[in-house]
Each structure stands twice: as C-alpha cells, then as structure tokens.
C-alpha cells in the first residue's frame, strides 16, 4: 500500500460518496411500478440503461405498432449508464488503434458507421428535446510521455483518409489549449466526441420511450427465461412477460444466457469531481474549448469540465474482484481516490487547494477485445449485446440497432461486420482468470513505466488479440 501524502489528502477532506449527476437534479422522472401478473408483448427488453432504452426507442421508431416492454431490476439508469463520465465518443472499437489491431479490413466502414451513429444520437436528442447538456466539443488524447506521442502522426493520416477529422498538436499547441506541464503533444479529434450529462440522457431516453408507448417496469429482476414454442416467457418475482422476441441489455450483470457469461468480467472504475472552479482557477488552466481529455498511457485518465466548471477526473485504476464479484460496497474506494487526487495535482499543479466534492465508482462490462459483441439464443428469439468496456455511451445505440437487426432477421451492413459475427476470446475460469488479469495489470503498469515497451506476456497477448482494460 502506497504511503499517503497529507497534502494530497487535504483535497479529499470534503468529498462525499455520491454521484455528481444526481445531486438535486429536478429532471429525474418519477419511478415506475414493478411488474405484477402476466402480460404479453412483441418485444421484451431486459435492462433499462442506455442499451435497453435505445433498443426500445428504435424498435418503436421502426414499427410504432410494436408492443414493447422494458424490465429493470433496480431503477432506470441505475448501472453504468448513470454512473459514467459523460464522454460520448463516436468510436465503436474502443479507439482507432484497438480497432485497427482487431478489424483492420473493416475500419473504414466502422469509422463511417461510428460517425453516423454519433450524428443520429445528436439528432435524437434534438428530436425529443432531451435536456442533457450536450456539447460537441471534440476530444484531446494527450501524450504525457514522448513514447505516447509516437504513432499519432500516422494514426491521424489513416483516420483522415477514412473520413475522420483529426489533427496532431505539438507540445506548445496542446499546452496553449490546456495549460498542463505534463503534456508533450496530443491528437485532437474535432468532432468525434461529445460531452453529455449521462443521467439526464438516460432520463431523456426514458421519456422518449414513454412518449411512444413503451411500458417500463422497475424493481422487476428477471429470474429466468422459458422457451414456449414461438415465444419466450420472461419471469420476474411477481409476474412474467410472454414475448415473441427478447433483447438482453444487462451489461455487467450476469447474462441470462449462461454461456455468454465467460466473455465478460466486471471491472471497477472510479471518478472524482472538484468544486466549481473560480474565474481565476479556470483562467490558470485555459481549456476554453471545453474538450474532453484522455491521456495515452495503458492506464489512462479521462477528464472534462462540467456545466458549472467543475472538473470530473476519473480512470487509471481498473479493479477486478476475485470470482467476478460485483457489489455496491465496491463503489467507493478510498485508496484509488487518493491516487487519483495525486495524479490530478501533478497534471494541474496550479489548482493546488481545490476541493473534491463527489466521489463514486461503478462496474464496467469488460471483454478481452475491449469492444461490444453480440449473440443470439433460443433459435433467434433472444439476442444480446455486451462487452462495451467503458466506451459505451454512444456505442450502445449502435449495439441496440444491431441487436434489433438480429432479432428482426435483417441482413444489414451492421450484421455482416466481423465484430458482430465473431465473439471475443473468453476469459479463463477462476482462479486462472484472476491470475490472467493480475499478470496483465502488472505488465501494463511496467510498460507505462518503461517507455511503452511491452514484455513477453503482453506480446503473447497481442499475438492472440487478447487483453484487459477498463
């Protein structure tokens, strides 16, 4: 355990273990009743986060007469959809480099589909008048060591040839945008990222679904699925839905399709938010473009300004608990908060003295290729998508649209993609899974400390397109 710096800890003296997004927000909608009794539907969606709500909304937009029911075990947006940092990145592949390693022959198509998907999200927000503090600010991927800057020029060239709009920034150029002594260069994606209030986006999608006639039941955990010839019966504690088609949008929670569970593990990620910056503090860091920022290490931070000019600062640690345990007591981690606060002050030493007010964590559905995958079951009556690995705010809409294509039997450009037709490598069973993850985490930490040089373990994982990230 690292020795704590008292100077750093003073910045955490007023932190509260709660979501910044939920702090007295008047837009939070009323709750929904639990499902009581047996009902029928054309489509039953399990899970009321981004994936589930996008599935329900798109299903009704495609066919307004389709009867759609959503079942949620807690309340709408209770999982990762309401707990993330609000980065709406266009990427469907957890970044361009990861996509090029895994789907090189499809990347031009994937990049185009990603841009179209982000544009459709913006259009939906406008169409349904969703108040979610949407800002199309772009994103800076900053290098904080010279080795992280290597390859950015080539990536920019490839991406621009594929229709993206990215620009390489020198040390002086990036420090002129955001005044941090840590930066040695950056890749600026002008329009491939938006910032959003994630909770308000969930609530807006919820209202849009309700406006189209979708029925939502909360506190209705699905206990099992039963095949009933031409339909599936979805059982909850007090009732059941008999539906012609079922879409599983359960994210990090154990899949109702047991064979799919081996592909995903829950990994905990943590976030801090500062008090609102004063005019002087804000001037000391610049950041007039309000870009979303992520650094380029294997273990990376992501950060952004909120609507009241607080700084949200998260990432770096990716904590896996033995046997894939996911409990709410894991959502607060004092050790990680101290580490994050120290990294924050190294990035912005001019903000020494600023207080952190909110801290929380949440589980990410991580898979070995860092990007979503799909599957079907029960002779095509059930479909699922998961494995977003922390970059799902935008890609969940694409995941939902593809899942609907699979359920509706549509041969589309989406369903023909390799990333849709093939699954990632599964994680090994315990205790090998825990050992695999620990070895990989240790190796990527050493790579970051050793100018990015990957040891034999990481090179073997690269050979088989395996990995671990959050």
Kindly summarize this structure in a few lines.
It contains 14 helices and 19 strands.
Index terms:
single chain, 470 residues, alpha+beta, 19 strands, globular
Describe it for me?
This protein is α+β, with helices and mostly antiparallel strands and 470 residues long. Among the domains are: 32-138 and 193-264 and 369-427, FAD/NAD(P)-binding domain; 432-463. Helices cover 31% and strands 22% of the residues. It has 14 helices and 19 strands. It has helices at 6-9, 50-62, 96-102, 107-127, 146-149, 152-161, 171-177, 198-211, 279-285, 334-347, 395-408, 418-421, 432-449, 456-463; strands spanning 37-46, 68-71, 87-89, 139-143, 166-169, 185-189, 193-195, 215-217, 224-228, 231-236, 239-248, 265-274, 292-295, 301-305, 311-315, 319-320, 356-366, 373-377, 382-386. The strands form 3 sheets. Strands 4, 5, 6, 12, 13, 14, 15, 16 and 17 form a 9-stranded mixed sheet that branches. Strands 1, 2, 8, 9, 10, 11, 18 and 19 form an 8-stranded mixed sheet that branches. Helix 2 packs parallel to helix 8 and helix 2 (50-62) crosses helix 11 (395-408). The longest helix is centred in the N-terminal third of the chain and has 21 residues, at 107-127. The protein is globular and about 65 Å long.
